[in-house]
Write a structure and sequence with these properties.
14 helices; globular
Amino acid sequence: GTMSFSYPVAVAITLLSAAMWGSWMQVIKRRGTYPIEGIAFWMFLFSFVMTGAITLLLSIWFLPEGILAASREHAAVIPEILLGGAMLSCGVYFGLAGMGKLGMLLVTTLSGTMTCILGVVTSIAKEGLPSHPWALPLVLISSATLILASVLCAVSFQMCERDRLVQSESKPAGKRQRGGITLSMLVCILLYAVLSNGWSMGTATGAADGMPALLIGFYMAAGSALGILLLCGIVFTRRNMWKTVLCVHAEKKPLLLGLLAAVGYYGGNLLSIYTMSVLSVTLSFLFGRSYSIWTYLWSFYYGEYRGARRKTILVLSGGLLLYLCAIGLLFLYNVCTA
């Protein structure tokens, strides 16, 4: 009844889910004047509907005892998984709110280091380390490599902004540069980083309890929907935003964007959860951090590095190479210990 994947297949699926995580945010660029928080709202509601449908369908094969019976068996951990899901969606909400003001790259990079450390600590605390003597050094080295990679990429982005500034000063009055980081933006980034750890908390709790992957995905998505309903319920009501968010008398394109984001983001989440048992939560999480590669490739594609000097591009390439090194390290370790 359980989903089983061979090692290389599990790694490939996890890397695919990272590509989905690194790509879904591109829908934000197409939203026009629609509030970015509205995208988060629709995305997590659609995610729940999508996950519910997938769970029902796959349960025919993978949960022959039925969803309810399987849930009853693991009832003790369900609240914590729901909480993890709720933290995750609220974290993404604040992350998006910060991105609306600060830009995608800066927010993902500033929060990335903290999320990486928190995630590794949480997953090891919940499920323990693999018993192999190389396990701890590997996790530490690959985490450090990932953090260094994100720092290098962030530095390259700052260098790029400076390159542009130099260019715009040599030309007549160009576009005004983004203002500095305000306290409210920092709070958004901090909330994003800390609450995103709901991902590691929820998935590792379910995995450590031996809950079937199908159910972990379902309860994570349910928690995410509850969390976003609660948060948006308060914010949209206080700011009188419901009419805008629900697209009353307006074009319904934002709903489609929310749906696409749901497929990219929660689709990636489900793929990652379904292959976690093969990789361990900790290694799955570390493989997943490669999503940043995609974020930077997209930003490159969208011309966010236009006008950058060669040195800037070299620093960016160095950062992306380090991401690949970390993936290589993790893969090597698994081949050696399998």
